[in-house]
Design a protein that fits this description.
Blueprint lengths: L4 H10 L9 H12 L6 E6 L2 E6 L7 E7 L26 H17 L5 E7 L8 H6 L1 H5 L4 E8 L6 E4 L2 E4 L1 E10 L3 E2 L9 H19 L6 E10 L5 E2 L2 E10 L2 H22 L2 E5 L3 E2 L2 E3 L1 H14 L3 E4 L9 H7 L2 E7 L16 H18 L4
Parallel strand pairs: 3-4, 3-5, 5-17, 6-16
Antiparallel strand pairs: 1-2, 2-4, 6-17, 7-15, 8-12, 8-13, 8-14, 9-11, 10-12
Helix pairs in contact: 1-3, 3-10, 6-7
This protein binds ligand L5K734KM.
């Protein structure tokens, strides 16, 4: 027996991960697939490297939105899979290959079995950064086709296949990227008194930044500062003049985000004085928290529990970020976790989701769209 076509599509997409707003091959692949579907019920528009597909309903009174992200991550794959990434240093390590193949499965079914309402499929670029959802929402085409409700999923390595997880209200955190450049005075390793060593300054800065979480954030609330990149220096016997840091901040409230940022700025000021250097700070992209519309999330949980063999788990909020949060800010909607049972987690070079989850997710989304899209409201 051959592979399920959407598993096969997932494998094709897995081979060609591309970073945010560079998803040219991905866009071409998706458009080529869309051309194989009957065109009479479908309108297709592109937006940057993204795609919007409106599937016309039989007698529409509303539009249901379904969103998938399409970008990959900057990480070298180590899964050893036969269909591993062909793009050096890039990998679909956050499951967007599965997200896309599921979206195509749901779209295909909806074209062949139209519901009363219109269904808008959104293939959104740059979720990992710098963020495609916010500018896409502001685009003319999105403004014209704005759905009345929207939903999306994200793979969850920690849950078994056959489980979905979500909750009403807050699901994912507010995020802000963090880019820090320290500039001092380089020199000979043997003459530290004539230089300002940025490796030493950066080390102090990294440790002090972590005290914001332990000393400034209410222990009953939560926040994260993670630095994922530290680069500096040129040789083992040269005092480093420059160090570059990159990271991310996560909080569950805007107030905490403001507080953490203020403390980062205070600490940077102290390091500048203490280590006689200059430091530049840039917050990069910021994502709005994913907040699930209570009524829709509850209705979805009950519907899935009652009409599929999936297990519905009510989960806690997570410190992951998602620019889908801008969509749930502007459109009533929700996101859910899809169990894919991988030993290695999101953003890991060995992430290996169980592909059996693809069919489960297509079935859940299709049934829900049939229910919502044929329901008068
Ligand atoms: C689901 C997921 O892993 N999303 C990313 C979103 C990244 C946002 C931004 N680039 C940042 O790092 O702040 C995540 O890392 O949570």
């Amino acid at each position: 027996m051959g592979l399920n076509p959407f598993v096969s599509i997932r494998r094709d997409l897995h081979k060609i991960p591309e970073l945010g707003f560079q998803e040219f091959k991905t866009q071409k692949y998706l458009l080529t697939y869309l051309q194989t579907l009957p065109g009479d019920r479908m309108e297709i528009e592109t937006w940057k490297t993204g795609i919007l597909v409106k599937v016309k309903g039989l007698n529409p009174s509303k539009t249901i939105g379904y969103r998938t992200d399409i970008d990959g991550l900057q990480i070298t794959e180590e899964t050893g899979l036969e269909f591993h990434s062909e793009h050096e240093g890039k990998m679909h390590a956050c499951g967007h290959d599965l997200h896309m193949s599921i979206a195509l499965g749901v779209l295909t079914h909806t074209i062949l079995n139209p519901v009363q309402d219109d269904v808008l499929f959104i293939f959104q670029p740059a979720e990992e950064g710098p963020g495609g959802a916010e500018p896409m929402l502001a685009s003319d085409i999105m403004q014209k086709w704005m759905p009345d409700m929207i939903f999306a999923l994200h793979i969850a390595p920690e849950y078994p296949v056959g489980t979905i997880a979500l909750k009403e209200g807050l699901l994912f955190a507010n995020t802000s990227e963090l880019y820090i450049d320290l500039k001092g005075k380089g020199g000979h390793a043997a003459y530290p008194h004539l230089s300002n060593d940025m490796i030493v300054a950066a080390s102090a800065l990294v440790t002090q930044l972590q005290t914001i979480i332990s000393r400034n954030v209410d222990p009953l609330d939560s926040a994260v500062i993670t630095l994922g990149i530290i680069n500096g220096g040129t040789a083992q016997n040269i005092i480093a003049e420059n160090v570059h840091l990159e990271g991310t901040i996560r909080t569950f409230s805007d107030e905490n985000m403001q507080k953490v940022k203020q403390r980062i700025e205070d600490i940077i000021e102290g390091i500048e004085k203490g280590y006689q250097c200059s430091i530049s700070l840039d917050y990069g992209a910021m994502y709005h928290q994913v907040y699930n519309n209570e009524e829709l999330a509850r209705e979805f949980m009950e519907f899935i529990a009652g009409h599929t063999d999936l297990t519905v788990h009510e989960c806690k909020e997570a410190m992951t970020g998602e620019d889908f949060g801008f969509m749930t800010r502007d459109i009533p909607g929700f996101m859910f976790w899809l169990g894919v049972n991988s030993e290695y987690g999101l953003h890991h070079s060995k992430l290996n989701p169980n592909e059996a989850a693809i069919e489960k997710a297509i079935e859940a989304a299709v049934k829900y769209i049939e229910y919502k899209g044929n329901k008068k409201s």
